[in-house]
Amino acid sequence: MSIPASPVRIRVTAVTPRGVRGDTGGRVKSVVLVRSETHNRSATDQHRIRSEESSVITATDLEVRAGVRTLLSAPGPALRVQAGDRIGLVGRNGAGKTTTLRILAGEGEPYAGTILRSSEIGYLPQDPREGNLDVLARDRVLSARGLDTLIRDMEKQQALMAEVADENEREKAVRKYGRLEERFSALGGYVAESEAARICHSLGLPDRVLGQALRTLSGGQRRRIELARILFSASDGSGGRSDRILLLDEPTNHLDADSITWLRGFLQSHDGGLIVISHDVELLDAVVNKVWFLDAVRGEADVYNMGWKKYLDARATDEQRRRRERANAEKKASALKAQAAKLGAKATKAVAAQNMVKRAERLLNELDDVRVADKVARIKFPEPAACGKTPLMAENLTKVYGSLEIFTGVDLAIDRGSRVVVLGLNGAGKTTLLRLLAGVEQPTAGGLVPGHGLKIGYFAQEHDTLDDAASVWENIRHAAPDAGEQDLRGLLGAFMFSGPQLDQPAGTLSGGEKTRLALAGLVSSAANVLLLDEPTNNLDPVSREQVLDALRSYTGAVVLVTHDPGAAEALNPERVILLPDGTEDHWSAEYLELIQLA
Hints:
Mean pLDDT: 80
Largest sheet: 6 strands, mixed
Strand content: 15-25%
Radius of gyration: 28 Å
CATH topology of the domain at 392-597: Rossmann fold
Shape: globular
Oligomer: single chain
Number of strands: 21
Distance between the termini: 54 Å
């Protein structure tokens, strides 16, 4: 039976947040479009119509700034994502990928431009917001569809039905429970709970973890819970069919090899739009069908409507074309200037000479800036401060959160210049162990025995050592209070921080930039024991290789937690500590396979 079509209803809301910025009068117009679909279609047709007509984000003439730096300048191409688009957002560290994605998600504002959003959005930032850490992990995932609140209300009514003696009160509780269960079923109910658990298990989150409060989980586990929540919001239980647009910033961080493989499949089958930032080239190659390249040299976005490998070829061709155009223009400009110099010697030809010079300048000004090789952070850990034979020991280290036992009775000795990898499944306590060794957390039992001359340098995977509210300069000054100003400016320059960027709040930096700033703090410390928790996360391939080279040449002691087999190989470790048991073993190449699975 055909149901008469209802008219399409459109509501447009225009918002101009916070008015004027700076002295140029940049204004932002954010337009939100809400549609209801026609009702004379089959369920499949309605799904297709919703996807094609409603699942859209369009950014026009976007200007993006970080502090005083212009990352994207207007005018520029319209950036549009709709159903079926799987877009890789790429560019070197610091090009503005994270900032742009945050703005598209509505979590930040551009300096100028128009953004239209007509779809629900699932946004995974690099550093998820903390929120209420007392919530159970399972409830956090279910909250994506509002099921967590319904479950709690149903449990409350169940308790009332069992406890109240008054018949009328019991009947009221029964009726309320019935209404709640109807709504629960309408939202997918018990099937949705099963779907959420399946997604979590696929991301390496077992039932044991789902029953824990977020507070007791590692940073990596909490980030995977957020990823599971977003994917659950975008899934209806039939393989990822949804018109929701997903904006994912480094979604493979903290995932093992099996989870990454599963995620690729989910994203490939997702019907809604997708924008993904990732340094995982295999994921980009398998998933994306379009690429937005943020060019840090030109401050522009180049749109490539093609897959990853074709994009690489096309971009290389574009770079060659720009070099040819510049060479030809420079040759013409040089000839014009030479001719102008000859004419300028004659008073009667002075005006013609000036016109030639202006024409030469216009030729050069109309060209793109010449591309130099992308800057690379020059990372080299300093000579470690002198210390005793065993600068750090731990005895009977135990950590318990409430009733949850992370590990017990861990003993270890870190000798001068030793190289140790900490290995264990996600949630085994690797990050917790490093936090205890760094003195950031206190053990439930046991303690540390510092040796003579101990000087610890700690790199936290969540960049906890940085003060987000403080500037880049203030952070490095705090890390090295005794260093001279010129030395610190030189150090920051080596890590690609200079000029106005020194005044930029650390909280506005991308994940890769935060990693570089935290590493700069380590370099300034002259530590003799480095505690490194995922130091290659968020880095582009070239910067990652710089970190690995620095590890190879460092002569102090290193305790490393990593999911990156290349980082472990570069360290060339002597020992491995297996958590949660605290067992110690000699390093062998077989452990490289476990690193990918851990």
